[in-house]
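step=encode ok
step=design start
structure_in=
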């Protein structure tokens, strides 16, 4: 049989440096360039760790993690003071976002929020006294995550603050988050002026008790269902919560009318929620925390169970490594700034709200929310590409959260540190931006990639087990 190979025009395939392909192409050859990079950036230590963790035991554990997280059913069951429902909470305990950190290392917004919380609790009469108390060692500071809770931005939870109580009906575990104050000059961005404290007191005495009565009459509100609906309506339920807030308001309103509250109180509550398009955020975060906690301590699993930032460091936890944090310096978001502010005003990234991405929404679901780019910058195609990118580093597609813009495929869920290290692709975070000085508040919103090193450190630790 005649060999016609050398009688045909050859096509050259180049793997590696594009300059090689360009050189051959300049001589008139037909060249196909294939983008290629070695796993883990060619780092031999990481490649060995990956080989050790690419086992059936790890795959099996990650499948269990995927099932636990996608089968979770987070339901709002109560709204109550933190000291009444969060185990170990005392008057001298203040919870914050992110991994553990001491007062002397805290950033401006976290310090500002703690000062506000001490004044709010009546432990200090002014900022000067509050700062002295905070530095005295009399206050116990701890991550919200250590108490089954989460908080956006500074993430401060103090004893008298009311919190959402969310129960995962599948696993029975509880999670908590404060009620959202609104945008701009608020405690979670480090603001602590008298009007900020007054709003918190109104939330404590009017808003939260009213909603608590309604939730109890309702017998619970399924947050997973509201989230799934909101994704169909243009939210990603981290930085865009317009539809989700409306859905929650629609759900709670009939039960508010069934309470013994007077018309003025109900009117105040409705006006506050409807005027705060981010009200659903904190509720969504508690639901995501209740979801992600189902995999804590899951042997052999390389799935990320938490990503959190305190404005100084970003930390992650991995299911198979339990409570241990792996930390790196916090990154700086790139995005859109309010008038009069710029990157030079921004604090490094902070907040527990990355529990959203960890649970499969937020930036993972940006394809469902093209309008998000008006808030964080970029284009609608960037939102689509962000979601597509996250499929490369996750275990699977969520069975409950779907994206209309991608033919109703499930959102990417369960970050796998093996895939992150192998591809050198890290989780995308969309976030609010706080001013680096305490007391000023939010100055913009943006996007950043989580730093790679914490995932590499976790992988190396996991490979030792």
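sequence_out=
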């Amino acid at each position: 049989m005649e060999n016609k190979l050398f009688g045909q025009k050859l096509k050259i395939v180049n793997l590696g440096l594009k300059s090689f392909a360009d050189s051959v192409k300049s001589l008139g050859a037909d060249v196909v360039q294939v983008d290629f990079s070695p796993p883990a950036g060619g780092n031999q230590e990481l490649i060995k760790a990956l080989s050790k963790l690419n086992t059936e035991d790890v795959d099996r554990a990650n499948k269990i993690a995927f099932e636990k997280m996608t089968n979770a059913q987070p339901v709002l069951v109560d709204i109550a003071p933190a000291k009444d429902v969060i185990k170990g909470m005392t008057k001298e305990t203040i919870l914050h976002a992110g991994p553990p950190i001491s007062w002397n290392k805290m950033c401006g917004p976290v310090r500002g929020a703690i000062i506000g919380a001490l004044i709010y609790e009546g432990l200090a009469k002014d900022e000067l006294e509050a700062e002295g108390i905070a530095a005295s060692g009399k206050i116990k500071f701890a991550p919200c995550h250590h108490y089954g809770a989460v908080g956006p931005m500074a993430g401060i939870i103090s004893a008298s603050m009311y919190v959402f109580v969310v129960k995962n009906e599948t696993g029975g575990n509880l999670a908590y988050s404060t009620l959202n104050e609104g945008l701009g000059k608020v405690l979670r961005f480090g603001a602590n002026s008298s009007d900020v404290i007054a709003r918190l007191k109104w939330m404590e005495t009017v808003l939260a008790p009213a909603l608590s009565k309604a939730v109890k009459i309702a017998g619970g509100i399924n947050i997973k269902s509201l989230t799934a609906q909101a994704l169909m309506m243009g939210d990603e339920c981290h930085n865009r919560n317009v539809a989700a807030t409306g859905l929650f308001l629609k759900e709670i309103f009939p039960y508010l009318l069934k309470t013994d509250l007077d018309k003025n109180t109900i009117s105040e509550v409705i006006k506050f929620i409807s005027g705060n398009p981010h009200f659903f955020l904190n509720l969504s975060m508690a639901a995501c925390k209740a979801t992600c906690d189902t995999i804590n301590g899951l042997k052999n699993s390389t799935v990320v169970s938490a990503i959190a930032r305190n404005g100084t460091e970003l930390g992650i936890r991995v299911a198979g490594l339990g409570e241990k944090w792996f930390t790196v310096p916090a990154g700086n978001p790139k995005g859109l700034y309010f008038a009069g502010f710029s990157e030079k005003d921004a604090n490094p990234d902070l907040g527990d709200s990355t529990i959203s991405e960890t649970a499969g929404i937020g930036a993972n679901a940006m394809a469902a929310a093209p309008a998000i780019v008006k808030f964080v910058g970029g284009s609608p195609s960037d939102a689509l590409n962000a979601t597509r990118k996250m499929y490369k580093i996750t275990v699977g597609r969520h069975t409950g959260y779907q994206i209309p813009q991608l033919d109703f495929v499930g959102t990417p869920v369960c970050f796998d540190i093996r895939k992150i290290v192998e591809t050198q692709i890290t989780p995308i975070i969309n976030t609010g931006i706080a001013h680096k000085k305490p007391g000023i508040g939010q100055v913009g919103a943006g996007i950043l990639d989580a730093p790679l090193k914490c995932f590499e450190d976790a992988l190396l630790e996991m490979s030792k087990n």
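step=design ok
step=annotate ok -> The chain has three domains: 5-36, 44-66+295-464, 74-288.
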